[in-house]
Specification:
The complex is a heterodimer of chains A (489) and B (100). Chain A has 489 residues and is of the alpha+beta class. Chain A has 3 domains: 294 residues, no CATH class; 88 residues, no CATH class; 59 residues, Arc Repressor Mutant, subunit A. Chain A has 15 helices and 16 strands. Chain A starts with 5 loop residues before the first strand and ends with a helix. By secondary structure, chain B is mainly α. Chain B has a domain of 51 residues: Orthogonal Bundle (Histone, subunit A), CATH 1.10.20. Chain B is flat. Classes of the chains: A alpha+beta (489), B mainly alpha (100). The interface between A and B is large, with 60 and 33 residues.
């Protein structure tokens, strides 16, 4: 793992609870649209509004997607799982209970590997299906926070939408590792298409269980639960702030209280949340209105074989192919870019050069234009044709960048066409380069003398002059060699 | 499973009532303690049966599945949804401030 968080004889113990909103068409237990951003209270029905007598029926696609996530996360999938009622009284839950899973979750214990230098394993406790709560809009009060609010408006569009809650064991030892773990887990869920995992829209939400203990201890300290960390940066900063707070309490002779904390990213402070059911007396019991879910071995084998390449495996493959770890990681967590690279590399047969271009010019172009890989006018085929011209020595890097710029601007242009039109072909032959070198050496006798006198760095200046003379088209490598031979000869 | 009798006193009734946000006076607490005790007593007869070897089931019938296709359909209109709300706004259900 990355350097563990250790201070004054204490170490960090961190576990995450991750809620993923599944990308289904309809809600978990009724047929209302599962749609973010619609007008309030327009995707509602008797079931999700909890009118008497309305009965839930489970969404087969939600179960399928949740199971795929479980398989991708290395979870054991029990043959039978069942739904339970989690009782709590709050306006975001019209039934006064949430249908969730208790002692028989859809996905049981798993192991998730974060690869790379300082990589580590995180055991997963479980992943279970449940329904989301309604959205509360807290009118009045300061900053929309619960305390001091003059009343709330409830929007039931979100109530009943399918959520997968993934619970990790407290195996994480630093805030940075928490971010790394969540980054890769998110990429894995996105890769299999189960959710878009957009933290800003709330389709990915992470809570952290945080405690500290003396280094080397095998017992756990009292943990607190951090909520509302709606970005990767806030997750890392929130955990960091909470570790520091706990350390201060312990070093001051106090004891950490078990509580739920809200992280304020603007102030960087933590405040205690006391409003919602602190008792944790949920009185779970099996949901009598729903049947157990049975998984067949054949069904699971089919799901497993249907999975795309997962980020951890892609990372391993790219590193084995010679890419650096940061490059491989950037591609591992970006399925769109990775797919693009694979298409380019298939056409060029040169993964490393293709990766350099994909992560360099191509990524810069995407970022600049705000496009995703599949929206770019520079298709994998067009970039591959350009790379081929670089690899076979037709053009040098400088010219290639110019051609790339034209490919972006003009969707009809081809790399070969641009090279011909703009006369960008590399000047590479010994004769042609020799002429240039002759001219440059003749014009700069002082530098030639200096080189011969031992100031070898002058060669940089001379190469630059030759490159200028060639209009930027000289084969830099051949030029260096020839120039050196001439000066030493 | 033990056949031990569970005593339900006024404190348990008040705890459960607090979880459900029910305000009960002392007379109601006493009345409900008796009623709930009789329900628990009824369930306790099951605990007395020799069922240690019987695996618990989530459903009374030996069936599973009964799933729904993932097709979105219109539910009710917002006007219908809000029709029974005691204090609706233009587009939502208004609820009292969440007190501590």
């Amino acid at each position: 793992m990355s350097a563990p968080w250790q201070k004054d004889g204490y170490e960090a113990v961190i576990g995450l609870e991750i809620h993923v909103q599944l990308a289904t068409n309809s809600k978990m237990f009724c047929s209302c649209a599962n749609q973010f951003g619609d007008e309030p209270n327009t995707n509602v029905c008797m079931v999700c509004l909890a009118h008497p007598g309305a009965m839930p029926v489970a969404n087969s696609e939600a179960i399928r997607q949740a199971t795929r996530v479980g398989v991708a996360l290395g979870c054991r999938i029990p043959e039978t799982s069942e739904f339970s009622r989690k009782q709590y009284f709050y306006p975001d839950s019209p039934k006064a209970y949430q249908i969730s899973q208790y002692d028989q979750p859809l996905c049981a214990e798993g192991l998730f590997r974060v690869p790379g230098e300082g990589g580590f394993d995180v055991r997963l406790t479980r992943a279970h299906l449940e329904e989301d709560a309604a959205k509360m809009i807290h009118a009045g009060g300061e900053g929309g926070r619960i305390s001091g609010s003059a009343g709330s408006i409830v929007d039931f569009n979100r109530v009943g939408t399918p959520l997968l809650e993934i619970v990790s064991e407290p195996d994480i030892r630093s805030p940075e590792d928490a971010r790394r773990f969540l980054t890769l887990l998110r990429a894995t869920v996105v890769a299999i298409g189960a959710s878009e995992c957009d933290m800003e829209k709330g389709s990915l939400r992470a809570d952290a269980n945080v405690s500290i203990r003396p280094i080397g201890s095998s017992e756990y300290g009292t943990k607190t639960e951090l909520k509302n960390m709606n970005s990767f940066r806030f997750l890392e900063r929130g955990i960091e702030a909470e570790l520091e707070r706990q350390l201060e309490v312990v070093l001051g002779g106090g004891t950490v209280q078990q509580e739920t904390l809200h992280f304020d990213p603007v102030a960087g402070t933590l405040s205690s949340l006391r409003s919602k059911e602190q008792a944790h007396d949920y009185r779970y019991f099996p949901e009598p209105d729903l049947l157990p879910v049975h998984q067949t071995e054949a069904g699971l084998i089919e799901l497993g074989s249907d999975l795309p390449e997962l980020p951890a495996a892609r990372f391993d493959r790219l590193v084995a192919a010679g890419l650096t770890e940061p490059t491989a990681l950037a591609l591992a967590v970006d399925a769109g870019l990775a797919g693009y690279l694979d298409a380019v590399a298939t056409a060029t047969g040169d993964l490393k050069t293709s990766a350099n271009w994909t992560m360099g010019e191509f990524s810069a172009h995407l970022n600049g234009a705000g496009l995703s890989a599949d929206q770019s006018p520079v298709t994998p085929e067009r970039l591959a044709a350009l790379i081929a011209l670089v690899v076979d020595g037709t053009i040098n890097q400088t010219a290639a960048k110019e051609v790339f710029g034209v490919l972006v601007e003009d969707a009809q242009a081809t790399a070969a066409g641009v090279v011909a039109d703009r006369n960008l072909a590399q000047v590479g032959g010994d004769d042609a380069l020799g002429e240039i070198i002759d001219a440059v050496l003749a014009a700069h006798p002082e530098e030639v003398e200096a080189f011969k006198g031992g100031r070898e760095q002058v060669i940089g200046f001379l190469v630059g002059q030759c490159m200028k003379q060639s209009g930027g088209r000289a084969d830099a490598k051949a030029l260096q060699g020839l120039l050196r031979a001439r000066l030493n000869g | 499973m033990s056949a031990e009798r569970i005593e339900l006193g006024p404190d348990e009734v008040r705890h459960v009532a607090a979880l459900a946000r029910l305000g009960l006076d002392d007379a109601e607490v006493a009345q409900l303690a008796g009623e709930l005790q009789s329900i628990l007593g009824h369930v306790a007869t099951i605990s007395a049966l020799p069922i240690a070897d019987v695996p618990p089931t989530a459903h009374s019938l030996d069936v599973a599945g009964a799933l729904r296709e993932d097709v979105a359909k219109p539910g009710v209109t917002r006007e219908q949804a809000l029709a029974n709300a005691p204090d609706p706004t233009v587009d939502g259900f208004r609820v009292p401030p969440i007190g501590a």
